[in-house]
Amino acid sequence: MYRLKEPAPGRAENLSEISSRVREILADIERRGEAAVREYSRRFDGWDPDDFRVPDSVVRSAGNELDEKLKRSLRFAVEQVRGFAEHQRRTLLDLEVETLPGLTLGHRHVPVESVGAYVPGGRYTLIASTYMNVVPARVAGVDRVVVCTPPRDGRVHPAVLYAAHLAGADAVYALGGVQAIAAMAFGVLPGLAAVDMVVGPGNAYVVEAKRQVFGRVGIDLLAGPTEIGIIADDTADPFLVACDLVGQLEHDPRSRGVLITTSERLARDVLAQLDEHLRAVSTEEVARAAWEAGGEVVVVADEDELIKVCDDYALEHVEVHVREPQRMIHLLRNYGSLFVGPETTVAYGDKVAGPNHVLPTLRAARFTGGQWVGKYLKTVTYQYATPAASRELAEHCATESLAEGMVAHARTATVRSSASVTVG
Ligand SMILES: NC(=O)c1ccc[n+]([C@@H]2O[C@H](COP(=O)([O-])OP(=O)(O)OC[C@H]3O[C@@H](n4cnc5c(N)ncnc54)[C@H](O)[C@@H]3O)[C@@H](O)[C@H]2O)c1
Ligand SMILES: N[C@H](CO)Cc1c[nH]c[nH+]1
Ligand SMILES: [Zn+2]
After folding, report:
1. Residues lining ligand 1, CB < 6 A?
2. What's the confidence (pLDDT) of residue 11?
3. Cα–Cα 20 to 30 A to 16, which of 117, 158, 344, 416?
């Protein structure tokens, strides 16, 4: 394997600076509460309203400000996302089995009680992140779902409010960044009680804040600056490959785009076209910065190496532009979401197709998939037994407990049985 384009060095140092900055902000908000939230909101977003909550009447009527075409597309998208989430929910079955005569074991999928959903809004108004967060929470049966999103031009964009209303959010707060994650996790704003789980994507500050509040509250996953990987062979269309790389690079100067290909000719064709695709978009500045800092082109020897390298990168999105692309669904292991064949593209998944767009970044795809209805459900277990089954368990339990020196554990077993185990 060799690279025709390398990423720029120096990203790791940057991340550790962000981490310490976020730690200071979270500690300050925990100590000083609302006053600190207001101070950071003023500093980073120039925003300090009387009340961060958007009035419900404004949320309900936001659709009046939107044109019908956009509203139709948003309704289509929400139905696609809801439909897929409902199908996924049906795969999560409660279970009750008798694994020994008289011993019944079971599990149930129980929704978390309250969720705080972060909808990014620094650079773009990410309307779709509203329903990607809220819909699966609602399908899971979460009782309370609040949304936080940064204001732009002194308000939350009406399309985000319309999407929040369609998706079924209980409240929307115009608050962004680390201060929003802290407000939802710590419950420091009047009327906004602490939630059990903070979910949603965001920039490097937001994702680091989620990582740091984890434990105190649950999180869905680490969904930071967008990444696109494309695996391709000599059948791929260099135009589509270059176009789709730039398609995601416009997200953030920290976004990554990686082409991994068995064809040096394709790699060179894509590189030759890339500048033209960057120049074709008005978001060129961000996309070009991302490409220069985080763009990579890797040429591999064969398909086995293609799969191995792609799995090592563990990228958020992977587009598959190879012969018989469906084969890759079962051959690849580490990715957030797969886009199979040239007729689909990451933007479909971002907005309208149905699978969730909140997906793992920074190699988190090695250990987690993306957001989905299952992330909002706790799989809890239970057991009950007949007296005969209890005696059988008691004997084994007491023997093992005594071998560990756990005498009180052993006693809880032996008092339930006539087993001849000596309690020391
Ligand atoms: N992985 C995913 O699933 C996924 C999905 C959608 C979007 N994204 C990513 O979400 C991100 C959105 O980023 P964004 O910046 O546009 O919006 P954002 O809402 O995530 O962040 C904006 C907030 O960042 C805070 N901020 C800005 N500079 C700061 C600083 N120096 N210190 C502390 N806080 C600061 C501000 O408070 C602001 O409200 C992009 O990186 C995009 O790629 C990821
Ligand atoms: N590609 C993003 C996930 O990394 C999601 C998104 C929403 N809108 C546009 N893109
Ligand atoms: Zn995107």
Report:
1. 21, 44-45, 120-123, 126, 129, 150, 176-178, 201-203, 205-206, 223-226, 251-252, 255, 316, 357-359, 361
2. 64
3. 117
